[in-house]
TrEMBL record:
InterPro entries: Aldolase_TIM, FAD/NAD-bd_sf, FAD/NAD-binding_dom, NADH:flavin_oxidoreductase, OxRdtase_FMN_N. This is 2,4-dienoyl-CoA reductase. Keywords: Flavoprotein, FMN, Iron, Iron-sulfur, Metal-binding, Oxidoreductase. Residues 382-627 form the FAD/NAD(P)-binding domain. Pfam families: Oxidored_FMN (PF00724), Pyr_redox_2 (PF07992). In the N-terminal section; belongs to the NADH:flavin oxidoreductase/NADH oxidase family. PANTHER family: 2,4-DIENOYL-COA REDUCTASE, 2,4-DIENOYL-COA REDUCTASE [(2E)-ENOYL-COA-PRODUCING]. SUPFAM superfamilies: FAD/NAD(P)-binding domain (SSF51905), FMN-linked oxidoreductases (SSF51395). Residues 6-330 form the NADH:flavin oxidoreductase/NADH oxidase N-terminal domain. GO terms for molecular function: FMN binding; iron-sulfur cluster binding; metal ion binding; oxidoreductase activity. Its cofactor is FMN; [4Fe-4S] cluster. The lineage of its organism: Bacteria, Bacillati, Bacillota, Bacilli, Bacillales.
Length: 671
């Protein structure tokens, strides 16, 4: 697609922007730590060089009780100095940056702030399991003053704009909703009253910063909470914000406690563009959208349709720091696309405890400063990489970037390994984009790729260094009687299409792989929407006789254990919807030709099955290691090194670490 609309110039108030791709707000999980300041600056500088038209910082707390783990807070003088350093670094790199002001309200955790959370009303948060204190009138005035002061600070230190976080269920959003605001004073009751605080804040900011400083309001287009703010109220609120002086509206959707997924891979592209469009219809200032607008083509389409004026993707900038630059150049093949896995971003920031943000597909995210200091060795090595899964692809790319001559050997006729197999799972088709990216990168780095090839020991002896990334093979639990019966297969047999599916299927193992395989099989029972409509139009009953029945036997009482918190609940909801039977806390004891016996601490039962799929873990596939390690420096990487879990993020990080550590050793040896 030609991105004509995407790269038109635009304006937010007085701020002129060179194109329409912003970078949405993201917490990095390291803010506030002065020792990490260089890394925070490096993160934003890389995206500025990647030509983000405007970057929006992660939320900066206006008061301590509305803060959280590793958030900047404006009551801390050192945090203010750090923020000023970030602005200066971004401007030196030629970028623009806005400060997002935030108060978590009832989403704040006392374990992180050391203070009791506050909110419009004392209503327990399902996220924190805490009941906040209802704000006094004095407390509300303090919050109002803190937001205004934050905007004044942003202007004084050179931020190009300020954005107020009034979406996703945070404090300003809490004042707007009758679910969280049950006050009976001037800040509660009617919708007019519930709007009072955010509107007063905007009025106060505009009075203090003047007309020239751009003010953006991040508003909730839809809360997706039953009984919350209506569409009509939301549009009315948008108009009032503009009347009070807002220059642009950035439209978010969903609260953190909503039962509607908004950022998971299962959410269709641009699914919420109509929500943003409804706000755009109500106002005459630029409107910004973000959720599930994660590729340049999708962004171009929503702009062409007139559904919004700017896009502000967030996670795609983690996946590729040059997101806009490559989009502008039309370099789709070289773009490292976000696969919406959430594993190193949202799962980290929303974890207990929170962890620094990274990216599964981009191992440099979160390490920009550290790796920018790496000095390349000028000693060129001939490197062999055995295995073309993501661990092998990553180690080949990293080694070639160091200037080495690299050859990849892959036994199959395609690249990707288990990552390719996983791309067949519903909502994981984007995994193939990562394989495409690595393939393109290796071609550009002139890496030689040998498919359907297994190197001999003598061949490998000719290389200066060998990386074995031969992955894993499914583990077959020999202790289970009947495990070798003809109808017992492994997850690999199913995903490669080696065997056909049965009719009554029992999956042994309810972890990530077992749950994903259950999802894949059960979704095949779904009748495509077009077919459903066709049969409904002609009043023909659908035939369900070909339906496959799926039972998952999970030893853990927590099904899908190991899957991140931001996606696990979505997967479990899908399994329930698709009719998958989850037996939690049961262990498979014996497999018979007719099915299998399972036991829990209180129960023993028989499950009829004409096919049993083993999803019982994996073991390292490293037969070459012992044969080659004494002849040439050899390192295991990925699953062949640690088969305890299939973790692509860990494998890719390890691949880069091994290459960079070796390069550092060569530089030190030379010096």
């Amino acid at each position: 697609m030609t991105h004509t609309r995407l790269f038109e110039k635009g304006k937010i108030g007085s701020l002129e922007l060179s194109h329409r791709i912003l970078m949405g707000s993201m917490h990095l999980g390291i803010e506030g730590d002065r020792e990490q300041l260089n890394q925070v600056k490096a993160f934003y500088v890389e995206r500025a060089k990647g030509e983000a038209a405007l970057m929006i910082t992660g939320g900066v707390a206006v008061l301590p009780e509305g803060s959280g783990d590793h958030m900047y807070c404006l009551t801390d003088d050192d945090h203010r100095h750090q923020l000023q350093d970030i602005v200066e670094a971004v401007h030196q790199a030629g970028g623009k940056i806005a400060l997002q002001l935030q108060h978590n309200g009832r989403y704040a955790k006392s374990s992180e702030t050391g203070l009791a959370p506050v909110a419009p009303s004392a209503i327990m948060s399902r996220i924190t399991k805490e009941t906040p204190k209802a704000l006094t009138l004095e407390g509300i005035q303090e919050i109002k003053a803190a937001f205004i002061d934050g905007a004044v600070f942003a202007q004084s230190v050179g931020f190009d704009a300020v954005e107020l976080m009034g979406s996703e269920g945070y404090l300003l959003n809490q004042f707007l909703s009758p679910l969280t605001n049950q006050r009976t004073d001037q800040y509660g009751g009617s919708f007019q009253n519930r709007m009072t605080l955010p509107l007063d804040i905007i009025s106060g900011i505009r009075e203090q910063v003047g007309q020239g400083f751009p003010v953006i309001y991040r508003m909730s287009g839809e809360d997706y909470m039953e009984g919350s703010t209506t569409r009509e109220e939301t549009q009315f609120f948008a108009k009032k914000l503009v009347e009070k002086g807002v220059d642009a509206l950035n439209v978010g959707v969903g609260w953190h406690e909503s039962k509607i997924p908004t950022v998971a891979a299962s959410v269709p592209d641009a699914a919420f563009a109509h929500v943003v469009s409804a706000i755009r219809d109500a106002v005459d200032v630029p409107v910004i959208g973000a959720n599930r607008i994660h590729t340049p083509d999708v962004a171009e389409e929503v702009l062409k349709q007139g559904q919004m004026d700017f896009v502000a993707p967030a996670r795609p900038w983690l996946a590729d720091a040059e997101f806009a630059k490559k989009a502008k150049a039309g370099d789709h093949a070289g773009l490292n696309l976000c696969i919406s896995c959430n594993q190193q971003c949202l799962d980290h920031t929303l974890g207990h405890p929170p962890l620094p943000v990274g990216c599964l597909v981009n191992p440099k995210t979160g390490h920009e400063w550290e790796w920018s200091l790496e000095e390349k060795s000028h000693e060129v090595e001939n490197v062999a990489v055995v295995g073309g899964g993501v661990a092998g692809l990553a180690v080949a790319k990293a080694s070639a970037e160091q200037g080495n001559n690299v050859t990849v050997f892959e036994a199959k006729d395609h690249l990707g390994g288990h990552f390719y197999l996983a791309s067949q799972i519903p909502s994981k088709s984007k995994f193939r984009e990562t394989i495409r990216f690595y393939k393109t990168s290796l071609e550009r780095l002139q890496v030689k790729i040998n498919l359907a090839t297994q190197p001999t020991i003598d061949e490998l002896k000719n290389y200066d260094r060998v990386y074995l990334a031969t992955g894993v093979v499914p583990y077959v639990p020999e202790q289970i009687k009947g495990v070798h019966l003809p109808h017992v297969v492994t997850y690999s047999d199913i995903l490669t299409g080696k065997v056909a599916l049965g009719k009554n299927i029992a999956i042994v193992g309810g972890g990530g792989i077992g749950s994903d395989v259950a999802h894949l099989i059960a979704q095949r029972n779904e009748v495509p929407g077009a077919v459903k409509h066709f049969f409904a139009d002609y009043h023909i009953e659908l035939d369900s006789s070909q339906r496959v029945n799926v039972t998952v036997v999970s030893r853990s009482v927590k099904a899908a254990k190991g899957i991140g918190p931001t996606t696990r609940w979505v997967l479990l909801s899908e399994l329930r919807r698709l009719g998958v039977d989850l037996l939690k806390g049961y262990e498979c004891k014996e497999i018979t030709p007719e099915g299998l016996w399972v036991e829990s601490q209180e129960d023993r039962q028989f499950i009829e099955a004409d096919q049993v799929i083993l999803c019982t873990g994996q073991i390292a596939n490293a037969p070459l290691y012992q044969a080659i390690k004494d002849h040439v420096p050899t390192q295991l990487v990925g699953g062949s090194d640690d088969a305890s879990e299939l973790n692509a993020a860990k494998a890719i990080q390890q691949a880069y670490r091994l290459v960079y550590d070796h390069g550092r050793e060569k530089v030190q040896t030379k010096s």
